[in-house]
Write a structure and sequence with these properties.
alpha+beta; two-stranded antiparallel ribbon; 4 helices; 44% helix
């Protein structure tokens, strides 16, 4: 279970946001079929960027997409 204020989101619901399609990003796990990979999100976070920084850089992403990337990396 992951807490996203003010809701509690079950990890399985978040993981539905992660898609794998061989025709998108060479089959790397990505966010909702878009050309933003889980790896990209995790790199931003590991370099010290906040979720808000990422959302400003990619305004079409949602907070839950970032949480899904984290959940995917730990699953």
């Amino acid at each position: 279970m992951i807490v996203i204020e003010p809701y509690v989101v079950m990890e399985n619901d978040l993981l539905k946001r992660i898609t794998i399609n061989p025709e998108i990003c060479n089959g790397k796990p990505n966010i909702r079929g878009m050309r933003i990979t889980v790896e990209t999100i995790l790199e931003f976070l590991s370099n010290g960027d906040s979720s808000n920084d990422i959302l400003e850089a990619y305004p079409f992403l949602e907070k839950e997409d970032i949480q899904a990337s984290i959940a995917y990396s730990t699953s």
